[in-house]
Amino acid sequence: MNAARSRSDASPLAFLPRDVATGMLISTVHRHSQKVLNDALRPLGIEERHFATMAVLDSRGPLTQRQLIDLLDLDKSSLGRIVDELERQDLAERRPVPGDRRAHAIHLSAQGRQRVGEAQQIAAGVGQQLFGHLPPEARQALDNALRQLLPRHGADGAPG
Prior knowledge:
Blueprint: H1 18-41, H2 48-60, E1 63-64, H3 65-72, H4 76-88, E2 92-97, E3 100-108, H5 110-131, H6 136-149
Antiparallel strand pairs: 1-3, 2-3
Helix pairs in contact: 1-5, 2-5
Protein backbone atom coordinates (compact mmCIF):
# COMPACT_ATOMS: atom_id res chain seq x y z
CA MET A 1 0.00 0.00 0.00
CA ASN A 2 1.21 3.49 -0.83
CA ALA A 3 2.34 5.22 2.37
CA ALA A 4 0.80 8.49 1.14
CA ARG A 5 -2.69 7.00 1.24
CA SER A 6 -4.74 7.71 4.34
CA ARG A 7 -6.64 5.04 6.24
CA SER A 8 -9.91 6.17 4.65
CA ASP A 9 -8.34 5.86 1.18
CA ALA A 10 -7.31 2.29 1.97
CA SER A 11 -10.87 0.99 1.63
CA PRO A 12 -11.07 -2.29 -0.27
CA LEU A 13 -14.06 -0.70 -2.03
CA ALA A 14 -12.05 2.23 -3.45
CA PHE A 15 -12.27 0.80 -6.98
CA LEU A 16 -16.08 1.15 -6.97
CA PRO A 17 -17.99 4.25 -8.08
CA ARG A 18 -18.45 6.57 -5.09
CA ASP A 19 -22.23 6.09 -4.74
CA VAL A 20 -21.82 2.31 -4.76
CA ALA A 21 -18.88 2.38 -2.35
CA THR A 22 -20.79 4.61 0.09
CA GLY A 23 -23.74 2.22 0.19
CA MET A 24 -21.47 -0.77 0.63
CA LEU A 25 -19.52 0.97 3.40
CA ILE A 26 -22.77 1.72 5.25
CA SER A 27 -23.81 -1.91 4.83
CA THR A 28 -20.43 -3.17 6.06
CA VAL A 29 -20.50 -0.91 9.12
CA HIS A 30 -24.08 -2.02 9.82
CA ARG A 31 -23.19 -5.71 9.69
CA HIS A 32 -20.15 -5.18 11.92
CA SER A 33 -21.98 -3.09 14.51
CA GLN A 34 -24.93 -5.51 14.52
CA LYS A 35 -22.56 -8.46 15.10
CA VAL A 36 -20.79 -6.67 17.96
CA LEU A 37 -24.12 -5.73 19.55
CA ASN A 38 -25.56 -9.23 19.11
CA ASP A 39 -22.44 -10.74 20.68
CA ALA A 40 -22.76 -8.36 23.64
CA LEU A 41 -26.50 -9.04 24.08
CA ARG A 42 -26.13 -12.84 23.84
CA PRO A 43 -25.79 -13.31 27.65
CA LEU A 44 -29.24 -11.71 28.00
CA GLY A 45 -30.73 -14.23 25.55
CA ILE A 46 -31.69 -11.58 23.02
CA GLU A 47 -30.41 -10.05 19.79
CA GLU A 48 -30.56 -6.56 18.30
CA ARG A 49 -33.97 -7.27 16.72
CA HIS A 50 -35.47 -8.18 20.11
CA PHE A 51 -33.80 -5.22 21.76
CA ALA A 52 -35.11 -2.77 19.15
CA THR A 53 -38.66 -4.07 19.59
CA MET A 54 -38.45 -4.00 23.37
CA ALA A 55 -36.89 -0.52 23.41
CA VAL A 56 -39.75 0.87 21.30
CA LEU A 57 -42.30 -0.75 23.61
CA ASP A 58 -40.46 0.54 26.67
CA SER A 59 -40.46 4.11 25.39
CA ARG A 60 -43.90 4.20 23.73
CA GLY A 61 -45.92 1.74 25.80
CA PRO A 62 -48.01 -1.07 24.36
CA LEU A 63 -48.40 -0.92 20.59
CA THR A 64 -50.30 -2.97 18.07
CA GLN A 65 -48.37 -5.26 15.80
CA ARG A 66 -49.22 -2.96 12.88
CA GLN A 67 -47.73 0.04 14.71
CA LEU A 68 -44.56 -1.91 15.50
CA ILE A 69 -44.28 -3.07 11.88
CA ASP A 70 -44.44 0.56 10.72
CA LEU A 71 -42.09 1.94 13.39
CA LEU A 72 -39.47 -0.78 12.99
CA ASP A 73 -39.87 -1.14 9.22
CA LEU A 74 -40.40 -4.89 9.49
CA ASP A 75 -42.61 -7.28 7.60
CA LYS A 76 -45.45 -9.02 9.39
CA SER A 77 -43.78 -12.44 9.59
CA SER A 78 -40.50 -11.02 10.96
CA LEU A 79 -42.28 -9.13 13.71
CA GLY A 80 -44.40 -12.19 14.45
CA ARG A 81 -41.27 -14.29 14.99
CA ILE A 82 -39.72 -11.62 17.21
CA VAL A 83 -42.85 -11.35 19.38
CA ASP A 84 -43.15 -15.16 19.55
CA GLU A 85 -39.55 -15.32 20.82
CA LEU A 86 -40.17 -12.55 23.37
CA GLU A 87 -43.29 -14.34 24.59
CA ARG A 88 -41.39 -17.63 24.98
CA GLN A 89 -38.96 -15.83 27.30
CA ASP A 90 -41.81 -14.09 29.20
CA LEU A 91 -40.47 -10.70 28.11
CA ALA A 92 -43.62 -9.56 26.30
CA GLU A 93 -47.16 -10.69 25.63
CA ARG A 94 -49.89 -10.11 23.07
CA ARG A 95 -53.17 -8.81 24.48
CA PRO A 96 -56.39 -8.18 22.59
CA VAL A 97 -57.14 -4.55 21.82
CA PRO A 98 -60.53 -3.61 23.30
CA GLY A 99 -63.04 -2.88 20.55
CA ASP A 100 -61.01 -4.59 17.77
CA ARG A 101 -61.28 -8.37 17.75
CA ARG A 102 -58.51 -8.72 15.17
CA ALA A 103 -55.88 -6.44 16.71
CA HIS A 104 -53.42 -7.35 19.43
CA ALA A 105 -51.21 -4.98 21.38
CA ILE A 106 -47.75 -6.04 22.49
CA HIS A 107 -46.99 -5.34 26.15
CA LEU A 108 -43.64 -5.67 27.89
CA SER A 109 -43.70 -7.80 31.00
CA ALA A 110 -41.97 -6.68 34.20
CA GLN A 111 -39.14 -9.04 33.25
CA GLY A 112 -39.08 -7.47 29.77
CA ARG A 113 -38.74 -3.97 31.23
CA GLN A 114 -35.85 -5.15 33.39
CA ARG A 115 -34.19 -6.90 30.44
CA VAL A 116 -34.49 -3.86 28.16
CA GLY A 117 -32.85 -1.74 30.87
CA GLU A 118 -29.93 -4.17 31.02
CA ALA A 119 -29.76 -4.25 27.22
CA GLN A 120 -29.69 -0.43 27.04
CA GLN A 121 -26.63 -0.38 29.30
CA ILE A 122 -24.92 -2.99 27.13
CA ALA A 123 -25.87 -1.13 23.94
CA ALA A 124 -24.47 2.11 25.33
CA GLY A 125 -21.16 0.35 25.97
CA VAL A 126 -21.16 -1.08 22.46
CA GLY A 127 -21.91 2.35 21.04
CA GLN A 128 -18.97 3.78 22.95
CA GLN A 129 -16.75 0.95 21.73
CA LEU A 130 -17.78 1.45 18.09
CA PHE A 131 -18.12 5.22 17.90
CA GLY A 132 -16.48 6.67 21.00
CA HIS A 133 -13.24 7.40 19.15
CA LEU A 134 -15.00 9.87 16.86
CA PRO A 135 -14.70 13.53 17.81
CA PRO A 136 -18.09 14.91 18.93
CA GLU A 137 -18.49 17.05 15.80
CA ALA A 138 -17.76 14.06 13.53
CA ARG A 139 -20.26 11.94 15.46
CA GLN A 140 -22.91 14.65 15.14
CA ALA A 141 -22.21 14.97 11.40
CA LEU A 142 -22.47 11.18 10.97
CA ASP A 143 -25.74 11.02 12.92
CA ASN A 144 -27.16 13.91 10.87
CA ALA A 145 -26.10 12.37 7.56
CA LEU A 146 -27.60 8.99 8.47
CA ARG A 147 -30.89 10.59 9.53
CA GLN A 148 -31.07 12.31 6.13
CA LEU A 149 -30.85 8.89 4.48
CA LEU A 150 -33.82 7.49 6.38
CA PRO A 151 -37.13 7.27 4.52
CA ARG A 152 -39.37 10.24 5.25
CA HIS A 153 -42.09 9.57 7.83
CA GLY A 154 -45.39 11.30 8.34
CA ALA A 155 -46.60 12.92 11.55
CA ASP A 156 -47.92 9.56 12.80
CA GLY A 157 -44.48 7.93 12.41
CA ALA A 158 -45.60 5.80 9.48
CA PRO A 159 -43.53 5.77 6.30
CA GLY A 160 -44.86 8.39 3.96
